[in-house]
Q: What sequence folds into this?
């Protein structure tokens, strides 16, 4: 579940533009993680936008965020910036 998005728009994308989006995990804590996304015009270095998206794992039955652990945490760690 997304709990916060911080986005910086750097360059206007228009109808018909091809975009490339790179996603990595910026940080991981006990109950949340932050993914960084970078949007560029495909085939160029022109940055359209950059965003940090904070999310939690959410248990609908318990109606609360749950710890990031096990295979989910391992997957996120594999995507983390070095």
A:
């Amino acid at each position: 579940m997304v709990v916060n998005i911080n986005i910086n728009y750097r360059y206007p994308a228009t109808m018909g533009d091809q975009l490339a989006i790179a996603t990595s995990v910026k940080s991981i804590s006990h109950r949340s993680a932050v993914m960084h996304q970078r949007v560029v015009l495909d085939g160029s270095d022109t940055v359209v936008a950059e965003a940090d998206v904070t999310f939690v794992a959410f248990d609908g039955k318990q109606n609360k965020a749950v710890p990031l652990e096990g295979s989910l945490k391992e997957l996120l760690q594999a995507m983390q910036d070095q």
